[in-house]
Amino acid sequence: MKSRFRSYCIEVAALAAASILLIAGNLNAAKKPKEPPHSEAVAPAAPKPDIPDLEFITGLREEEFGHGEVMDIMSYLTDGDR
Predict the structure, then answer these.
(1) pLDDT in tens, 35-44
(2) What is the reported pTM?
């Protein structure tokens, strides 16, 4: 008889503790008013990516490949002046 009584006491105590925690949590959440986000606080939308100027890029590549001196400079730096 005593073991059944202890079993019920433990179950009731656990149920009461869980109920108190849930009620306290709900009361705490109810006290904090949810403020709508301010228009200033909202992150701005991602800017549209810039459209690359393909004409400029093509001209730059042609100039570099046609008149580039990178290999000459590297040869001078590594091999020295011959």
Answers:
(1) 665 655 566 6
(2) 0.32
Is residue 57 in some structural domain?
Answer: yes
The answer to whether position 38 is within a domain reads no
Read off the pLDDT of residues 53-66 as tens digits, 9 standing for 90 and up: 999 999 999 988 88
CA distance 71 to 35: 63
Locate all alpha helices (DSSP H) within the chain, ordered by sequence: 2-31, 54-67, 70-79
Which residues constitute the domain of residue 59? 2-31+52-79
- Cα distances (Å, whole numbers) of residue 13 to 2, 5, 10, 25, 81: 16, 12, 5, 18, 92
